[in-house]
Amino acid sequence: MAELRRYITTEDLMVHNKPRDLWISIQGKVYDVSDWAKDHPGGELPLLSLAGQDVTDAFVAYHPGTAWQYLDKFFIGYHLKDYSVSEASKDYRKLVFEFSKMGLFDKKGHGACILLCFMAMLFVSGWIGHDSSHYQIMPTPGLNRFTQILAGNCVTGISIAWWKWNHNAHHIACNSLDFDPDLQHMPLFAVSSKFFNSLTSYFYERKMNFDSIARFLVSYQHLTFYPVMCFARINLFAQSLSLLLSKRRVPNRGQEILGLLVFWIWYPLLVSCLPNWGERLMFVIASFGVTGIQHVQFCLNHFSTSVYVGPPKGNDWFEKQTSGSLDIMCSSWMDWFHGGLQFQVEHHLFPRLPRCHLRKISPFVKELCKKHNLPYNIASFWKANALTLRTLRTAALQARDLTNPVPKNLVWEAVNTHG
């Protein structure tokens, strides 16, 4: 006798979207992850961002085939009555299946080994912290974790726990102005005039006030962009310390703190070896400036693409990831410079895919975008810089010309006095 199924509607599912009442649907089956969300390896935030929705595309993008076996213990007997799949999602899932069958997610190449050798010689991270947090670049989870702490905490002074918390939110809510932390840089930058409504950041859990100070800074953001990027690493240091010293649950907090202590021992010691304070200051400024190139690249991939306000949705995964990301056109011999970020569209669609395969799969992604009349955003490195500056300048001019301006401070009045 056929099993009698119990069904609920999408509207019924949407009601269960709170921390202690969190349901999701995967391929039409409904799962209650309320009690388990805090133990989710990717953190609680990705689940909360997509709570009360069908999350099949996000699940297949982020989880290996072995993860399916763990779903049954969360199944609560309900199936989604009005479950449907768009044509774009169907084709996207086919690609995931084909890439899995080809073993691309498991063939990691020799990139990690080569970069670790460079780290030993030059003591630089070479994007390896980013890679090791998206997929297992080492033979065992223990070695992979060691690589994360070494490349992130010890070498760069950035908590890998903070990075994963931040970066997972960015991937799930790509280019949502109020859910994606990678676009929330008020009061220094605003990529859209929608920020002028003082949006609430659901990541930082605070209101991003567009006051007179923010208006002044945003009005000149296209001029301050590169100077600020030269010192953006300071913000990452502060964010890392803030998380580790907070009451928020942080896995392996002791390892994280120990890794940062290693950085804050070797880096000041290195600086102290220079003969005078002038050279020490120049060295620190130069080191920040070089890492600023990496921060610029992060911005190029998303600042000039489509943005939206509101929570991410599980049923337009492919569309949102492609419209919110920008590829950088470059020759294969320049791949080392961009560290895989030049294939940002592909990376967002297949975050577990080792970077050595991103160039290989880009034609498939481009073809799928064309088939479904979706944008495949790509530009040269210089064009991407121009597009980013154009976006910042447009918002800057809009900040100056609002019909109902906020009260201006004295600095604003002095700079903008006419006559």
Automatic annotation (TrEMBL):
Record field: transmembrane: 109-128, 224-245, 257-277
Gene Ontology biological-process entries: lipid metabolic process
Domain of life per record: Eukaryota
InterPro entries in UniProt: Cyt_B5-like_heme/steroid-bd, Cyt_B5-like_heme/steroid_sf, FA_desaturase_dom, Fatty_acid_desaturase
Matches recorded under SMART domains: Cyt-b5
Pfam families (UniProt xref): Cyt-b5, FA_desaturase
This protein's pathway: Lipid metabolism
GO cellular component: membrane
Compartment annotation: Membrane
Single Gene Ontology MF annotation: metal ion binding
Keywords of this entry: Heme, Iron, Lipid metabolism, Membrane, Metal-binding, Oxidoreductase, Transmembrane, Transmembrane helix
Membrane topology: Multi-pass membrane protein
Domain Cytochrome b5 heme-binding: from-to ranges: 5-80
Principal place of residence: membrane
Family: Belongs to the fatty acid desaturase type 1 family.
Name by which UniProt lists this protein: Cytochrome b5 heme-binding domain-containing protein
Protein's organism: Nyssa sinensis
Lineage: Eukaryota, Viridiplantae, Streptophyta, Embryophyta, Tracheophyta
